[in-house]
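Anyone have tokens for Levanase? Sequence:
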Amino acid sequence: MSLHVDVSIRILIFLCTLLFLKECHAQNCLNDKYRPQLHYSPAKNWLNDPNGLVYLAGEYHMFYQYYPDGTVWGPMHWGHAITSDLVHWEELPIALYPNALGDIFSGSAVVDFKNTSGLQTGGDPPLILIFTQASGNTQLQSIAVSNDRGRSFGFYAGNPVLQNTDKTINDFRDPKVFYMNDKWIMSLAVKNKIQMFSSNNLKNWTKLGEFGAVPLQGAHGGVWECPDLLSFTLDGLKLWVLLVSINPGGPNNGSATQYFIGTFDGRQFRKTGIYQNLWMDWGPDNYAGVTFSNEPKNRKLLIAWMNNWDYGQVLPTVAWRGQMTLPRVLDLQRIDGKPRLLSTPAVEVESLRNLAQFYETTRPLWIRSRHDFTNDLQFNNSLLEVDGVFDTQLTINDPSATFSICFYNGLAEEVCVGYNFGTNNLFFDRSNSGDTSFYGNFGQISYANRETRNKILQLKLYLDTSAIEIFADGGYTTMTGLFFPTQLLTGVRVKFSSGIAVNQLKILSMTIRGLKSIYNC
Ligand SMILES: *[C@@H]1O[C@H](CO)[C@@H](O)[C@H](O)[C@H]1NC(C)=O
Ligand SMILES: *[C@@H]1O[C@H](CO)[C@@H](O)[C@H](O)[C@H]1NC(C)=O
Ligand SMILES: *[C@@H]1O[C@H](CO)[C@@H](O)[C@H](O)[C@H]1NC(C)=O
Ligand SMILES: *[C@@H]1O[C@H](CO)[C@@H](O)[C@H](O)[C@H]1NC(C)=O
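Reply: yep, here.
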């Protein structure tokens, strides 16, 4: 049977190539239990961090931590998938297998336009992968090259290209490389800090500054991983954002990604401003996010592993385990006067809208205790894009008041996204979302400190079969979370609760769209 599937996939790929069909994929239909229909997941086996996100010649490449022999973490390989539209992915053969220097841990990829590496053999610039190899307690950096637009890869004969001189530290990993002022700059996670290196040729690396440990900066509840240093323009000035994933120690337990705002002079990142820990995403399931290199529209386009090390290896999926977030665009802007990172879903995701499945309120709705939108919709879909605008000012102030948008099924299972009027917090509640039994704390409610006090709260939600992405206030506060319902969640209702009887929730507008699966099922 698997031979038969292989042959039909080959024929499909052949037809796609022949007909130049952009939205044609090898993965014709994946719809096993909990299988995401909007988000990337591997057909089989274990996936974690996205690696080597890079655009080249019409294709976005995503590599990722992959174990091809099981659905838990094991000796790491680089899995590989490509897309031309950021929505429909095609899984390609494994790009990198472990070798004598070790397993293939996380890292990045660049297009070496100027042949600085000397590794270009053909007419097109080579793709260079820069990654950690791990063997026992040793972690070092290696590179590999592709001269055929990312279809085959060869290890550089001079590996490793960077080794740790401090033998007291085992954690020395996750190189993220970009080009600046005729040099390659690498940020690397070294236990509790980020070290910077530079190189002319991607082979020879010189240590620059470091950040995070002395003086102590940010959250340190766990090891630092997967840095990414990004430049933005704000008020006409260049500012830098350093992403640092941390595990454990996230704002809702386990894995999460913090960020720092500051300056970078080519050697040293320095934090500016006085702020407590900043989180790129407050939800339980957003980790190891990094951005694409060579993005054609110059966007800071990020994909993260939608999971948490607390329970990532025991999720109740069967053939596969692990999925990625939607591609998100990062930006740095001011909100309530403060510079803050914001994330919004890439505009390409809108191509999944089913134009026949559209509902919107035509006038404000006042809600005493609940309103069910399910019958208003005139369509039945568990893949939804919801845009709600809410008034957070009540007639009579009530700090105990809350509202939530809940997605539910006929078994009374539900996933809720809500707002707490007293604390100005957002929350994500999956306590009654179906299977939570595989991990004791999976059902705990997650909270996010909303970045603004604006009276108008905007919520944008993407609902998939087993995940939700929440973007509040245009993306200044985001939360991402998994859930595992017994049946699909196709109902939508809003609940409001206040101890003061005259209070009602004012929904200024509500738009609900049905989305199409990324598969042809
Ligand atoms: C890339 O650089 C190497 C080393 O300088 C050189 O041998 C090779 O010919 C160059 N490749 C191309 C296509 O120019
Ligand atoms: C690295 O740099 C050193 C000194 O600058 C030089 O001797 C060596 O050949 C370089 N190695 C590579 C692989 O470029
Ligand atoms: C999760 O976080 C909460 C709040 O910080 C804390 O009280 C609880 O002990 C944590 N649970 C675990 C398992 O770490
Ligand atoms: C909507 O679809 C779900 C899942 O396919 C199904 O369980 C439910 O009965 C449907 N609801 C209606 C009103 O047709």
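The chain has three domains: 1-31, 32-345, 352-515.
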